[in-house]
Design a protein that fits this description.
- It is a single chain.
- A seven-stranded mixed sheet has the order 6-14-13-12-7-8-11. The protein has a five-stranded antiparallel sheet with strand order 1-5-4-3-2. Strands 9-10 form a two-stranded antiparallel sheet.
- It contains ten helices and 14 strands.
- The longest helix is centred in the middle third of the chain and has 18 residues.
- Helices cover 37% and strands 24% of the residues.
- Strand 4 and strand 5 form a beta hairpin.
- Helix 3 runs antiparallel to helix 6, helix 5 runs parallel beside helix 6 and helix 6 packs across helix 8.
- It is of the alpha+beta class and 292 residues long.
- The radius of gyration is 21 Å and the shape is globular.
């Protein structure tokens, strides 16, 4: 349960408290912990507190960037305790594994990017940040906009997989592309190829099983709102409440830029929601804003 300044994980049985206790103690140093008869507290990072209630088994996560910490770390913590408890596997894990994102930390990537922007390689830098930010913004329940004059089928696959990975969250996503978005190939053609790729992706855990069902592919593609415009700029951005972020790059969202050592400019900015809408969305006819 997301409650603004903190996140609360509740359980149907208080017996899970013992499991949480064992997993957290195994995952972090003991000098980060305090304990009394009812509450077990842990500080896994500066400004963040985990508070376990032994009476009802609930875990409270509160502090700086608590939601980001949760989305980046909870999967590894849960996996570390699978020897002691049976966990129903979430589709997020195999998707993240398939996309090579299990070790990608969005905050680390942003820390490595200077505030002034920089020239970086597509493979290993810009592409990882592109995927990680879209994933993070979906997990926040944000309104996400993806703008590019060139996109290949594989990037549509990436977007669809991240939509499914975050399917329980109330985000929105719009893709703005020209009608012809990969040379002479239309977006409709790229979407058809993307569907074929999605239909043939195997689960990393069970090779004979497909990662996504046909129904799930259909559902995810319907969540992707598409608008056709003519332009040459490339960025991804999000709006959540009154804040916004944008990643601007010279890289096309295409394997020619993301799978190679092609060097492109990349910058990340934080701004208000109104500034983002006026300065980035309105010029592309993506949203109408009358004033600051």
């Amino acid at each position: 349960m997301f409650l603004g300044d903190h996140l609360m994980i509740t359980c149907v049985r208080n017996s899970v408290a013992a499991w949480w206790l064992g997993v957290l103690r195994a995952s972090y140093q003991q000098d980060q912990c305090t304990d009394d008869k009812r509450y077990f507290k842990m500080r896994p990072s500066k400004g963040l507190v985990l508070k376990l209630d032994r009476d009802d088994g609930s875990l409270k996560i509160k502090g700086d960037n608590h939601w980001e910490w949760f989305t980046e770390n909870i999967q590894d913590i849960m996996c570390s305790g699978q020897e002691n408890v049976t966990i129903v596997a979430d589709i997020f894990d195999p998707i993240r594994r398939h996309m090579g994102m299990r070790d990608v930390k969005v905050f680390q990537l942003l820390e490595e990017l200077p505030r002034t922007g920089a020239v970086q390689n597509g493979i290993g830098a810009i592409y990882n940040l592109w995927k990680a930010l879209i994933d993070k913004w979906f997990s926040m329940g944000a309104q996400v906009t993806i703008v590019t004059p060139v996109i290949d089928a594989e990037r549509i696959v990436d977007i669809v997989l991240l939509i499914v990975a975050n399917q329980r969250l109330s985000f929105k996503v719009k893709l703005c592309v020209p009608e012809k978005c990969d040379g002479d190939h239309s977006f409709k053609r790229m979407k058809t190829i993307a569907r074929e790729i999605l239909q043939n992706i195997k689960s990393p855990h069970q090779k004979r099983r497909k990662l996504l069902t046909e129904a799930k592919i259909d559902w995810a593609l319907k969540q992707l709102e598409v608008q056709h415009e003519q332009f040459t700029c490339k960025f991804i951005g999000m709006v959540k409440d009154n804040r916004a972020e944008v990643l601007v790059t010279s890289a096309n969202f295409h394997k020619r830029h993301f799978y190679t050592n092609c060097r492109d400019t990349v910058s990340h900015f934080r701004l208000t929601a109104t500034e983002f809408r006026i300065q980035y969305l309105e010029p592309l006819n993506l949203e109408k804003v009358t004033s600051l």
